[in-house]
Amino acid sequence: MMSSTEPSLVECVGTHVDVDRLSRDVERTGTFGAVDGEGHGRTALTADDANAAAREYLVDRLEAADCSVRIDAVGNVVGRWVPPSADPEAAAVASGSHLDSVVQGGIFDGPLGVYAALEGVRAMQDAVDEGVSFERPLEVVSFTEEEGHRFSDGLLGSSVAVGHTSVAEALALTDADGVSLEDALEEAGFRGEGRFDAAEWNDWLELHVEQGRTLERAGMPVGIVTSIAGTARCRVDIEGEANHAGTTAMDERADALVAAADVVRAVERVATDVAGPNGRAVGTVGCLDIDPGAVNVVPGRSMLKLDLRDPDADGVERLVDGVETALERVESERPVTTTLERTHDAPPIPMQDGCRSVIADAADVLDVETMPVHSGAGHDTMRVGTCTDVGMLFVPSRDGVSHSPREWTDWADCARGTRVLAGGLATLAGGIDQ
Amino acid sequence: MMSSTEPSLVECVGTHVDVDRLSRDVERTGTFGAVDGEGHGRTALTADDANAAAREYLVDRLEAADCSVRIDAVGNVVGRWVPPSADPEAAAVASGSHLDSVVQGGIFDGPLGVYAALEGVRAMQDAVDEGVSFERPLEVVSFTEEEGHRFSDGLLGSSVAVGHTSVAEALALTDADGVSLEDALEEAGFRGEGRFDAAEWNDWLELHVEQGRTLERAGMPVGIVTSIAGTARCRVDIEGEANHAGTTAMDERADALVAAADVVRAVERVATDVAGPNGRAVGTVGCLDIDPGAVNVVPGRSMLKLDLRDPDADGVERLVDGVETALERVESERPVTTTLERTHDAPPIPMQDGCRSVIADAADVLDVETMPVHSGAGHDTMRVGTCTDVGMLFVPSRDGVSHSPREWTDWADCARGTRVLAGGLATLAGGIDQ
After folding, report:
1. Do A223 and A276 belong to one domain?
2. Are residues B240 and B354 in the same domain?
3. Are the Cβ atoms of B244 and A283 closer than 8 angstroms?
4. Quick one: pLDDT at residue A37?
């Protein structure tokens, strides 16, 4: 549900977006788990010390902005602001992102979306002081473990919020050291109660860095996401036979690494084929472990983790099929056995026209140029989009780089994106310029 | 230098080889660092608790056999027995192997050669009681870190004993945790003084498990080694660019793992080409690490460790050249840079006719069948062979397996090999059957 855009309302809220307030929060979040070296890197994995500090800082900032803060059983954080004139029983308009990072990630991926949402709320509060009123409560959200670098394959908190994953399943997940999410959240002080239900939100908007080059190449400050790629993740295990590197003749080997090399190249070939000249299919082997991993031993086992994406569900299946065919071929050509396990599936999500036009209208009013963009990256919005209306905005990534200390977005672009986000939230909250 | 084989001397010494005495020592050594599970596995890395216990046990057994024990600066252990009639100033006849293992290795690889040498000495001592006399001292040797699984690329103690590596270089080597060999040996109580000089030995014999299938297939109990393959080890680093697995199009990637897959397959192809139908060239990528190693990140860096072997020095160079050509090709086809560093070189070693015929003659006298074999595996004998006359014997490996808890050699074959070794040592020590 949404109201029509009120030009003067959007202008009023947009004017109150304060890039200094926003950048202070994002930069401060970047100090938790900051990594040495060039750029602005941070490592803040779910519920580790850096992530706990980032969460505590968020709680402080939400409370400073008159938001009531709740934590759910899987550590999702929600700060709720009920505008003076709003109906507290009305379905809220929600916005946010995540505070966790990849190992040696950047400071924008996640925190920008959380603090842009909070900045939107603060701008709306400033607008209230000027006589604007809103009908719906606003909720600023930080989802647990979007990146999936400690306990899961990612989108963990939002998967729980839409009922895709149960609270019990999520809490029982363990990290590489065998620590459960439940124990880690307890330790960090962020094991709350209950489960936030994304279906209760009226609308959801997320601002995020693009993590690609489309906006930068087009010289556009803001992208309006049309679709988010579907993702299939697979684990491939290859079993050969470990043996002595000096005494085992080339034709007597069952080398699990050579077979893995065949698979790595097959993933590249299959993704290139499915993408064709204009497609957006991608296929990546991001993890490869071999056993025993000694210079003078023929590898006996290898384990690969694959990430396969396409804007269409059909394309995702073609990628998985192509990999399965490649594995059959490897088994027929080499004395190894292979197994493929699909560990994670997120279907492609088209963005609703409603939220897209609210964002586009707000950008028009604020005189911010936009363009439609596809998201190759997965986002919590994919999960939220399975149970409510969603929209998503991108701001440019310098050189297209993300998941790296080199990740950077100019603050002027962050400000433009946040103004559009705030205008969109104000519209969706049913603002009336009195 | 050697004497002609005296049939009755060899028979007398061979008769006194006691397989129970031998198996007790080898099996006891296998208890230090024993790994759970099927087979007979052990992990005893240089100067760790298991290796220290194995060393202490060896010192006890040497002393129990009237050997005077010395430890040199890099932890090589020598037990010296001067037969009653021998000239203590005469150049010794030496034999032995190593006590360290690979991770989850077997109990025969190394310890069999050390204790077969000691059993040979004990058999000669028994023969002395029957009136046999010998001209030369005998030395039973355990070299430090043959396998190279903690501080080095292997053959460490023997490299120091032949002057290929200095004591200072060796002691300064560090393990993955930054512990130096010097500190580890001090801690284990095996940091001795001085440097054993292999050039002072008159001859050297080593008994080892084959680690291949040649003897088993031929149904032969003992192999007489004709040559040991030369080995080149290389480290290859590939630098691409880490990026987001969802947002980086296939044709915009600089994927360091896909480039590494090209290299892995090139190593296989080059080794197969150099080997041809009857050659013994082998090429292995035993280690492959990628960075950052996350499922949703295109790998930005990869590091491979290569092991290239051939019986001829020329063959080794053809292997390295082939890999270098493949790297150039990878660089021309993909936006990555590659570097190759040669980290370890051990030239092929042909076995001297002298020691080979001493072993063959002893086997004839003892009615043990033998066949000539090539060693694809490297051994300390490669190093010792650079400065004195050397010979090497193999006993069969069940299914050709080694570097595994499944490594196994029947005790009857161990006994046959040890009898031939003892007969050879007795001959080389100038035994006279009085």
Report:
1. no
2. no
3. no
4. 84
